[in-house]
Specification:
The protein is α/β, with parallel strands linked by helices. It is built from 16 helices and 19 strands. A seven-stranded parallel sheet has the order 11-10-12-13-14-15-16, with helices on both faces. It has a five-stranded mixed sheet with strand order 2-6-17-18-19, with no helix packed on it. A four-stranded mixed sheet has the order 4-3-1-5, with no helix packed on it. It starts with a helix and ends with a helix. The structure holds zinc ion. The site of zinc ion has 4 residues, from loops. The site of zinc ion (ZN) has 4 residues, from loops.
Length: 460
């Protein structure tokens, strides 16, 4: 028998009050599950690019995958609960390496919104859409983030995506864009540095806190912001690598991307969308093979413009109407020019051997927001030439590898049982990642209806 809190409540009306109290204390909290569970009949997408296991079976015990294979090749343990997933597809939860958590309030955007509660809310939105791990990059205050990670590792926030963060570094009054900088400067979330010596000292202080990564911005925002000079980012990269830390670099122009890749950054953020890549850059990429998150969707037409509840269900109706009024008509010539460069540059980056990883840049504006932006971004990869299987790897195994998460990213024995149950296979049509029938974290089914009910209350 699959025991879960809601069914229990429904069957035993006498106990309904007690159940309601639990539900109110923990909306969306994963449903309780004891003993092994045997999931059977689904098509299993492992996440490593291998052929799917049709008519598969999976044993989950203590939140981990204990066995996986073709149905018939593995046995249900004695006393296991059975979950029939015939006609469903199961894939690993997604891993997003680039968002900006904490500031979005949907009807407001500010540093005042940055509370542990709001961080949790954003991570629950990520989980709701099947994202098992989420990394906020360069915009979250360091000490508060360390505390959040510790709380989550202690077992709090079971309905949230696993939280990862890294500090940012920029010249004084430089770095984040015009929106984000209002939040990061109020919270002093970015380490402001002017000299190589300051840069090395800042990286050393991060290393003593056991941080694994740092973000830099190399951009003058068309002459309006100070750009980090090479002697400073060279010092950051050198010092970070001495401490086995990785450097993520924001760079949007061909010249800046060349500069940071040549300097040895580990993760490149953004796609060049205003000129064609040249052979010099492609040779450099072939040599360095950085991880790359293009975060294209933020510049695309918002999915909120189309009448698809998959995207709008988690947004307040007022926010949806505002987006539709303001954001849905972009000049066709601008769109076409940008698209021409993206269509040219994306496949060239991939052919040059960069290691594509899922990132969205969500958190700057509700027009491209937590959890659903991932599904837009993945579909873009396929539209620009990847196979669905390659897109899945870029959204699961490879970002988990980048973040050093050993127990997420694929469906395999010993991994955390974090997976998405889909009504149709994304290998047939990548947009089927949106056909979410259920999300499991640590082997427990997320109560997506309860989360949605909370968001509906907040928005109205
Ligand atoms: Zn960003």
């Amino acid at each position: 028998m699959v025991s879960n809190q809601q069914e229990f409540c429904a069957r035993r009306l006498a106990a309904v009050l007690g159940c309601l109290v639990v539900a109110l204390l923990s909306p969306g909290m994963a449903k309780s599950q004891t003993g092994p569970v045997f999931f059977e009949g689904a098509r299993l997408i492992v996440g490593d690019g291998s052929a799917p296991i049709n008519n598969g079976a999976m044993v989950v015990r203590d939140g981990r995958i204990a066995a996986i294979g073709r149905k018939g090749s593995i046995q249900a343990p004695a006393g296991a609960a059975r979950v029939d997933l015939t006609d469903k597809t199961v894939m690993p939860t997604l891993v997003n390496v680039h968002v900006h958590i904490g500031y979005e309030g949907y009807t407001s955007w500010s540093a005042q919104n940055y509370t542990p509660q709001n961080v949790l809310d954003h991570l629950e939105r990520e989980a709701f859409y099947g994202v098992g791990a989420t990394q906020t990059v360069g915009s979250s205050p360091t000490d508060a983030s360390i505390r959040f990670v510790q709380d989550q590792e202690a077992g709090r926030f079971p309905s949230a995506s696993r939280f990862f963060f890294m500090p940012g570094m920029a010249p004084p009054n430089g770095g984040p864009d015009a929106i984000l900088i209002k939040g990061t400067s109020a919270l002093q979330a970015v380490y402001e540095i002017s000299t190589p010596e300051q840069a090395r000292a800042a990286v050393q202080s991060m290393a003593t806190k056991k941080l694994k990564s740092v973000k830099i911005w190399v951009d003058d925002r068309r002459g309006t912001y100070p750009k980090m000079p090479p002697e400073v980012y060279n010092a950051i990269i050198d010092e970070a690598h001495k401490h086995q830390m990785m450097v993520n670099a924001h760079a949007t122009t061909l010249a800046d991307q060349k500069a940071v890749v040549r300097a040895g950054i580990d993760v490149l953020v953004h796609i060049v969308a205003n000129e064609k890549l040249d052979d010099e850059y492609l040779a450099l990429l072939r040599e360095k093979k950085p991880y790359w998150t293009p975060v294209m969707g933020l510049g695309d037409r918002s999915d909120v413009c189309d009448d698809d509840p998959f995207f709008t269900q988690t947004l307040p109706p007022r926010t949806v109407s505002e987006i539709r009024e303001k954001e849905c008509s972009q000049p066709a010539a601008t769109v076409a020019a940008r698209e021409k460069f993206i269509a040219n540059n994306f496949p060239k980056m991939i052919d040059a051997g960069v290691r594509l990883v899922l990132g969205t840049d969500a958190g700057i504006t509700p027009r491209y927001s937590f959890g659903w932006a991932e599904h837009h971004e993945i579909a873009r990869y396929v539209q620009l030439g990847l196979t669905p299987s390659q897109a899945v790897v870029a959204a699961t195994q490879r970002p988990a590898e980048l973040l050093g998460i050993r127990d997420l990213g694929t469906l395999a024995v010993g991994k955390s049982a974090d997976f998405i149950v889909l009504d149709a296979s994304p290998l047939d049509d990548i947009r089927n990642t949106r056909q979410i029938a259920g999300v499991y974290l640590h082997g427990k089914k997320l109560d997506r209806d309860a989360l949605l009910a909370e968001w509906k209350k907040l928005g109205n």
